[in-house]
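The pair is quoted verbatim below.
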Amino acid sequence: MVADFSGGFLSCDGGALLLRQVDLSMQLSRRVAACFSDYRNQRFVEHSVPELVAQRMIALAMGYEDLNDHNQLRLDPVIAASVGKNDPLGHDRIHPQDRGKALAGASTLNRMELSAQKSGGNHKLPCNPEMMEDLVLQLGVEALPRDSKQIILDIDATDDPLHGSQEGAFYHGYYHNYCYLPLYICVGDVPLWAQLRTSDHDACEGTNQALEKIVPVLRQRCPHAEIILRGDSGFCRESILQWCESNGLQYVIGLSRNARLEKEIEVTMIRIKERQCLCGTAVRGYKSFVYQTRDSWSRSRRVIGKAEMTLQGTNPRFVVTNLADEIIADTVYEEYYCPRGQMENIIKQQQLDLAADRTSTAHMASNQLRLWFSTLAYMMLDRLRRWGLYDTLLSRATAGTVRLKLLKMAAKITVSTRRVYIQFNSSFPLKDLWQECLNRLIQIPIHNSTG
């Protein structure tokens, strides 16, 4: 057995070429780059803004969560080709010390991110936060069918633990740590909103302002769809309920239990206990009733109470809704409210697979930019599933599973004067699926200004 390092230019990220095809179809890096201003002296620029943002998003999608990873990643010819570099081996770099390194290093990308907070000196790539916020929303809405009849907006907040002296670090009593409290709004698997917030406010802080931006865009995209807001009890606030009622939205939102609510389902709970004694398993029942708080609500509203008896004891739950009375109580709870749990899976993918919680710069603005980059990387993988993997064994796979099974593949790259030739592993287990996915992606029309 003989081993050496004469194999040529190799990469373990051959599947990144699929992400390049998604990027081209969405025109993602070009559209994200339009949110940045470039004040660099162009005579000395070797990495354009579209290339920098593509490098950052593709690297996140491929599992490289730290900027320091790019000091080695800049040597990867397949990632360079995916970013759109004409010289993926980096032979034509201006400075001798950079030759062989086609991509930007960690310091260049760090300056781009910190430009969201700083200006002047080396920080010459500021991002317009309003434009980026609008772009994330627009990209999410573009994934929705225009003829949708119903759109369910899932809203949730989560903790983003902090381990330093970042701007906006506050201790949160519920999570028992210093953290940010980002706000997410999704439709199914599609994120529309990713807002970084400090944790010294209510979990629903900024919800109305987000809805004021999201709802008009949704109605423009899907004019015939009814919109339903769904969230847990942290979003059961008079201002949110009233906004939905005033703007034609329906809602199904969790309601914290109290003695008055439990009194309303007391008879139902007694019957459930009797049934549970007979069958010996968990039993539940539902009751619909009208309820008004003593001082926080401006009007009475319909509440659905779930009376449940498990082997561990009683488990009463409540939701408030303005869905039509014709929709029976168990349907409201089980078919409209319970699927809210999928939202938490989307957040887990964001944080576990795409480093949405890697908000370790010193400033809120640059950490918000990192959160957006993570969300955009998730969108790339989501479009890959929607466009290239529908009706396949990976059609419902998580972002991490798609990466592991389809994108992490060996590749050899050869560059000549005429072409860039990439050879994949002949024994790759999912090569037929990979080829089918690529063929589907190639057929997707390139995004234009009309969507």
Notes: The chain has a mean pLDDT of 93.
